[in-house]
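New to this. Explain these tokens.
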Amino acid sequence: MATIDRSNSESLFKKSNTYFPGGVNSPVRAFKSVEGAPIFMKKGDGCHIWDEDGNKFIDFCCSWGPLILGHNNKKVYDGIVGALQNGASFGTPTVLENQLGELILSRNPFIDKIRFVSSGTEAVMSALRMARGFTGRKKVLKFEGCYHGHVDSMLVKAGSGLVTFGESSSAGVPEEYANETLVLPLNDIEALKECFKKYKNEIACAIIEPIPANNGLLLQDKSFLLALREICTEFGVLLFFDEVISGFRVGFNGAAELYGITPDIITYGKIIGGGLPVGAYGAKKEIMAMISPEGPVYQAGTLSGNPVAMAAGIAQLTECAKDGFYEDQEARTKFFVDRVNTYAKDKDYNFELVTIGSIFWISFDGKKSIQKADQINSDMSQFSKLFSALLDRGVYLGPSGYEVGFISQAHTKEYLEEAAKIFCESLDVVFDLSKVHLTF
């Protein structure tokens, strides 16, 4: 099959390299782990996107998750246009902030108050400061394989040993910042107990993606999350659920609702703004009382609660709050995943789509249960081949084997059936190529 024409994207990427580091404004957009220049997208509608060369794709990236209703959803579009007609930004309170706040809080039993910001990273950064201010403690516990944005103290990886101080995973992060972060493996209750035994009076909060989805889909045993809740309660440590991906995606109230576990702090991401730049953090009122101007923990943002983003969020979350929305999302996702997995099993391919809610992840580790980052096969050559085969056939994924895919309301069964057939055809290409490689 002929490779699709990418000449316009290639030309645009060549030019963008003269403007931006690496030619992109976020590294996840680069095609570092796959072939060719990144694709420059021109428009989206429903579950489809079109690039600058006129190629059409079924989109499973969905702007990395927030487009749960699909591209160019009419209700979200109308909300944006209606708000924009009154002005893009005021730097003052607006009624739209109240309306979105009420929409979220009236349905969420886990938090009493919320603060809107402009990104998931900003939400995490602000909530970490709040946790330290509330507890009077400095250290933060995080888990290897979870991503919490590009906050300095979160850009750390595990060192050597069972309970370790973090080591910077990015240049420009001072060692002193990393030393305030403890890093543990996921799904390891013994390591958790040992850490709290040693640092129980120093840890302000334990931050975790309850559904880790930035480094593969590392589904955790509920028993581990329950143990984390219990030990945090025992030692007065705040349990911090980073639900930037899972919030409003696996259920209206995210993983906290799905697992029935109450965290002390929750962060949400751009899904609450229909794809516009929004984030939020929330907690019980006594914790949120620490935030200025009510309390001594300073946090501010000129574009926080932007009226256009609030209007988009109101439109999107009103749809998400309807009865049966998440059940339908999960059912269509299962429909798609089951078709691909059944085909792979019949062909005896070492492949599986792992799924929760309307999230899926491509695993070339067969039926192996993967709950920790170091259990993922670091050889991403098969993913690269699959990505290329899918792209040539009209399916777009995020360009990394560690990233997850998302299904929106706009992915009807008809389109999912089409995408499943393309997946199966592309798997034949990948595994036939693998057999050819083995003969040499």
Remarks:
- The mean pLDDT is 93.
